[in-house]
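Summary for the funding panel

The consortium committed to producing paired sequence-structure records for every protein in the target list. Below we show the first two records in order, beginning with the earlier of the two.
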Amino acid sequence: MTSEIQPVRKVLPLIPLRNVVLFPSVETSLFFGRKESTQALLHAFDNTNKLVIITAQRHSNVEKPEAKDLYTVGVVAKIEHVLQSDGSLHAIVRGLSRVNIVNLVQHEPFLTAEFVDLPVISESVTDIQQAAEALLSQLKKAFALGRQFDLPAMMQLSTGVSSSDLADQVCFAVDAKVPEKQSLLETLLVSQRLKGATELLLQEMKVAELERSIEEKTQEKFNVHMKKNVLEERKRQIDKELKKLGQREEGENDDLEKRIKKAKMPPTIKKKLLKELNRLNEMGSMSPESSYIRTYLETILDLPWGKYSSTKVSLPKSEKILDDDHYGLKDVKERILEYLAVLQLKNKSKPNPDSISSANILCFIGPPGVGKTSIGKSIANALNRKFIRASLGGIRDEAEIRGHRRTYVGAMPGRIVKGLKDAGSLDPVFMLDEVDKIGADYRGDPSAALLETLDPEQNKDFTDHYLDFPLDLSKVFFILTGNDISTIPYALRDRLEIINFAGYTLEEKFHIAKKYLIKKQLLANGLSPKNTTEIKDKTLKYVIDKYTREAGVRELERVIARLFRKVAKKIVTTKVKQINLNDPVIIKKFLGPEKFSSQLKGKKDEIGVSTGLAWTSVGGDILFIEVNIMPGKGNLILTGKLGSVMKESCRAALSYVRSQAKNFGITQNFHKVDVHI
């Protein structure tokens, strides 16, 4: 036979509160003026435990409450500090736990109550967590609307405050009626208390939003004419005082206003700038924001509004420029001339430069040193436009393309806007170099920012974050370059017309060196044709074949430069006036031993050896494939850093031999031997 354990009854002084409901875990400051309350407070404070029961009155107008006038659920509180002033007491109390008031023991000289502790009811942790998250979410919204709470629990969230304490502190802090708060004080389930606190907070936010809406509407009805007069008079007085102090001179921003009105920018942008200028005029020159606004205005005014290059295109002249600047590249030149022909026809049908735009974005893909960047300069010369180049290799921040928002310290426009500013026109040839080497991280993906920039349908309204208004890029001739098309994102690649640059052949390198590089390096190294014998074709081809192995001509140019530096040193140190560079001995002395050698086909066929063809970035080569067989278990061993295609070819060859073994007169014991290729 079992019996329920009866809760222990305790006795403490009781203090009733009017219009206040105290909760556990809340520390607050209270004023006590009634005689009974002050006596109970001092009695408890003089006691060792400093404990007192605090409960709310049902009706605030009752001066001497009886049991029927008090709520039966209250809080045991500890008195932390007491200060006496003008007949009343100011005390700091801290709520400890919920209690149920059983009855009042005495009424004089102060109330004393018999009480029992209310039990803690266990419940689902999941329910508590969900309710707590909902309350925290509502609190964040309240903070965003400007609501301030003095909540220790909110300050201690990172240290793991309990959900029960959070609910109690929010219930105490919100603006609600006593019965609503008392109902939550009497709620023992933490999840229900959290939900109730969320409802009270939501209700308070709705009231605050309504009050703010009413206030805004009332403010709008204020006499606009009177407000304008007051502000203008205040501005005149401020300007007058600043002039006396020497902090502002008359018309210091007049130059900006003249430039804004004179600029050939769209009316909407001009209106925005004049609004910013008015803000600048209304603040003192010592204001930190004034320098930001001035920089913003000057940056926009420095853009080449309404300035375009001459769009007259002469196809024969353009072809001559391309041929003079670059040898070979017939397919590339042909595609560029096609573009220029289309542009010339557009000029005839639509002479207004505002109607001329770049229909396609060209992307040059090829190995380093084949002339991708330099041919972009030639295109600019052929079009009679300014040439701007921006290297995108290694950038990881989207702001490099779109710019930083003005709210950031040190904000600046992106590379596109900077390029237009440097070009001095709104239709330059704009080369974005190394587009295949763009990175991405937590700051954004620059290649995604390029999508709008390079889309002919969208770049009429390109928006730089710093400018914060649309900028027309449709007249800009964009050219992209890269080495590896596979690393360019598909969405970006889809907007581009790919033009592939193949590596130069030996013959093309020979003509490039003879026509351009030798003359350039003679001049760069202080030499003249009199200092060296004319380099024969055979010597030049020997240098190209034995000392360079590349797709472009950069290494070849470095080799020629090295050769001429040796000549310069020889002339200075030995007083010799001319060096014969057609002597192989001198070439090897100046450049060292041969770095590369070409494989030659075997003079006679050998068993177990065949000749293969290999592709390289500089053309083709041959290689010898040797095969050995040895006792084993039928394994195929492949060595020599073979690629997947070569491995498949080896397996296919072995399969063919096995299938035709009878025709070839080969003993079919493949499972007893290993083949090593």
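The next record, for a separate protein in the list, is shown here:
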Amino acid sequence: MTQAQPLCNVCFEPAKVLKTIQGYKENSFYDILHCGQCDTSFIRNDASAETELIYDLIYNHGNQVPGYNRYYTYADKVLEEHKPLHYLADTEDMYWAIADCIEKKIITKDMKLIEVGCGLGYLSYALHEDGFDIMGIDISEKAISKARQKYGDYYKCMDIYKMVEEGNEQFDIILLTEVIEHVTDPVDFIEALSMLLNPGGKIIITTPNKSAYPPQVSWDTELPPVHHYWFSEKSIRTIASNLKLTCRFVDFSPFNKDHLDKTKFSRYKEPERKPVLSSTGNVLAHKPKTRKEKVSMLLRKLNVMKIISRVWISIKANKEDWHRRQTMCAILSGEL
């Protein structure tokens, strides 16, 4: 008997297997599938249990885990900054997008906010310090415990499905920064979030943006099962359309002027990502930093990197699709 063709979890059309890749843990392998209808890449394997184990390892040793150690830096740094939101917005595009929504009055201080999947809690803290009414929630008890100890009592260990079931709270803005790519059923997840919105409320999503890359690139995001999906803008539009929500995207043109983005340069090639954790859950030792990487770190510390980036971008960057970056920010609104 032939195996049924797998279906896309976003648009439910047939998808095809592109290749099998190494997972986040050594000696684990995952099939990467792609849906040509909505341009979504995703993993076939059901890895929910493995994902939870990996997250526990990340929260236990996060300051040593490549790609996640910077979040621990942000968690400490925001406490030292007079304007922590400004610091975050200048550091990463996903936080700049949130600040841009504030500047454009999409988010205002008379609104009730919730950050879903707040992790270590530093973005919620930065918004709270800026005068916003916000609560941060996460399903990780470890993450919420760290956030409450560091910043205050406006964090809860909570599952959004339980919140929907209880029906006690509604919000004007739901923030979802780098979360949707981790969930197993994104359509069901966004549908649940939409039930927590006040009339006229919005869900603001940031996630890695497949649309910024050449079409032949199959997977340039965290290795599975840390990321289950690599979404395109069409993916997010499809989710919104299926749920009768409107969708628009933040224009990253202002941020792109002086912040490098690897997708804007002709020499970009799909990287061969290597496992981060050993099969026993230890952080793998990687090659020491190159001379070029060390110089880059020094220039960043001396606050020279932005000037160099601006010059390099003006000379070398491809200005097509200038509104895009390797991260997207989608604003979903409307009622079911």
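Regarding this second record: Residues 16-333 form a domain with the Rossmann fold fold (CATH 3.40.50.150). The chain has a mean pLDDT of 88.
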